[in-house]
Records
---
Amino acid sequence: MTENEIGSIVIAGAIEVHRELGPGLLESVYEAALAHELTERGLSVRRQVPVAIHYKTIFLEEGFRADLVINDQVILELKSVEQLSKAHRKQIQTYLRLTDTKLGYLLNFGVALMKEGIVRAVNGLPE
């Protein structure tokens, strides 16, 4: 399955979760619900994945935690805020760069319409 095929399933799943639960809950609730939804749709989902990174001459065993990793190909960063900031957008781009992952999504469940809370991020993924 390609990154873009996974992405289509992720978007449909996120919209379904938001439609069922609505905005205003904790990020952890959306994470659990989305993990369940995507698993039900046939994807492999890992939650709160520790990601090791290299910094100069040292190895950091847990440089960050990815909220969700889908099929070991797509990283999802979830938020439940009124509005996304530039820092949120840079965060997902940094995750992609540090892991050499080609596709990621920043999903904000705090908005009234889920389509307004979806940010697609790429790192060398051909269109």
Note: The chain has three helices and five strands.
---
Amino acid sequence: MTKISYRTAASFNGYIADEQGSVSWLYGVDRGDGPPPNVLDGVGVVVTGSTTYEWLLESANMLAEPATWQTYYASRPVFVFTARQLPAPAGADVRFVQGRVEDHLETILAAAGAEDVAISSGGELAGQFLDAGALDEITIGVAPVALANGTQLLPRRLEADRLRLTAVEQRGQLVNLTYTVSNHDS
């Protein structure tokens, strides 16, 4: 069964990006020895918003070096929620959509097939999946950093009765907390 997951890193006070929209604060966090797990194993589709998409294009120079896209995403379709015209790396399967998550959910799930959907974006887009009753799992890599302000992890109220802690993993100074989300009222 296809699962829709939001996986992100956050400061211990709940921000995923600083006031300038940067995640550079995360680069200084010790993530332990050994290679990090491939978070896209078992993922058939990635969903992102325009801000994250543009940051990725710029930070990895993907328009000038489109082979970099393949390193990150291989042949997976990437759905980008945006109201603007944006470029795509040559050879990348990027699908620009606009509007409500509900309007595109069936298409996203069909593109994923039997594999999972990964939300790789800010908390607002993940919150829209939550609002649509279509968010199954949240994994937060909590970093030992406090940010004064920035982009919230999930700008929604989500009570404990809808979350069940299913995994805790320490990787260096980062602690990954995985929760399943109940998509019905208790």
Note: The longest strand covers residues 163-171.
---
Amino acid sequence: MWIQFLLIVAVVLLAAFMMRRTGADSHLAIRRILLGLFVFAAVLSILFPQWLTWVASLIGVGRGTDLLLYALVIMFLAFVYTQYRRNLALQREITLLARKTALLEATGREERTAEDDEGTTRSR
């Protein structure tokens, strides 16, 4: 009984942590709905382990643990894909920022060089 309580608390706390806003996330509603469904399924699986076996037999999977493993593999692949997309977006932003910084520094150097040349010409 205690392990069920601890597992449910852990799932709910993890879900609350994952649902917090992380900035400009365009898929926040979808993520919250899916996470809510996951929490619901996780709590049911903790309270009624035979439920997972029943769902697995309906789908045609041998055991509930096998179904859980397949679901976790799919979730892991989805996570890897979203992290890959996020990493690409961050790399593009870093590249753009580096280009802008280089252009600003080059423009600043040209202005300073032009000012130095004017100052040298005036002093002669």
Note: The chain has a mean pLDDT of 81.
---
Amino acid sequence: MPVESTSGRGATRNAVPTRFNLPERLIEGDWLDEVEALDGVTQRRTTVTVERPKSILTRNQSADIGFDRSVNPYRGCEHGCIYCFARPTHAYHDLSPGVDFESRLFVKPDAAKLLHAALSRPGYDCAPIALGTNTDPYQPIEGKWRVTRAILELLNETDHPFTITTKSDRVLRDLDLIAPAAHKGLAAVAMSVTSLDPAISRTLEPRAPAGRKRIEAIRRLNEAGVPTLLAVAPVIPQITDHEMERIVEAGAEAGARAGFYLPIRLPHEVAPLFRAWLDDHYPDRAGKVMATIQSLRGGKDNDPNFFTRMQGQGPWADLLRTRFELAARKAGLGTARLKLRRDLFRPPEGRQMRLL
């Protein structure tokens, strides 16, 4: 049997779950699936399994999150971001939050149909639906499955408000749906930019579009009239924090309406995966990085408490907050949340799209 390589993936480990080189990134990371390594080592292939859930609208009551409902078209994410807080969800499928999370994907092709049923229920109370809160709705497989696009078509039909969080310029492929909704006050996009340095990005988030492409996506969304927020997320001490001011400046110049930042979170299985990644890619500073993260998280790898989990605590948290506020003020980047209209919503009418 040939040895299977994890080259080109974010996680460097694929531990059994215990719970339920380019100078420029000129093309998308999914090109790596076409590469065969030498000496009998084959690249791990991405597989996609159809998932048939009974419902698609997920509710949350988190006190520090600005939405109460979300839709996730995919489970797992091929972008391979080592810091992704959604990795532990793969353990519920008896799969590893490591390499399995980014190579054993699940698609929900009936998502729009299930959402249609949810919006049709008597007494449905309209509020913005968040897309991309767990895994990215514009990861590479969206190009084939187009589940996110089908959802947007339904939301446009019903004039339902929505937000999109992504780190991919693939969102521009649906600009014909997003822009008309935004003109009605029904849509906004948050673009996550972690680093503008290709050398950092190719191991940190190996299959996500380059940071400069995300900045350009902000520009094009803004030109199309789509309110777009810049998310400097996550900020990783001693790895990406030195780029905060540069990212804020670039996002503001591209037309971002507002912005925010989030320090790195390492829940559950993410912490050991991140430690292994540090040991492999940044052995010279691994201990320092983890010590700083723990200082942000009350002496632990992760702080699950509301509010502090989003901003951190202690001197490092204060420093990041001050730096972001100064950078945003200098660049003219706002920090206010965008409000979307709810009064235009009309329940879907049967299986057919409205003709009038």
Note: The two ends are 60 Å apart (CA to CA).
